[in-house]
Amino acid sequence: MEKENKSKKRKMFKSLNVFAERALHGELLTLDLFLKHWIRIFLFVAMIIIFISSKYECQTCMEDIKTLKRDLEIVETECVRVKGEYMSRVRESYMAHLVDSMRLNLKVQEQPPFKLTYEEKDQ
Question: Could you tell me the residue ranges of all domains in the chain?
């Protein structure tokens, strides 16, 4: 039994040795192999190229998304700043000052506005 195991190991080692020797001498990838399997090799290379290009496209899109997010944050803060400036300009005192400086002869109403209601009389 021990002799059988040794002989199996020797055969396996010998086959690995032959494979390595053929690979080193360039006999593993022959022209016949390429001629027989040229369609599979072409498809394999095309799939690798498509994978690399899609990965590159994805990375560039992700970089674009990051820059757009950063730009969006900047625009949002600018919007808040402009809104604050606008709200300060619509304050009553500032508007009264603008009206006075333009000499439009407009005045602030003393009485608050009131609602008109109509009551029906019972007949």
Answer: 22-101
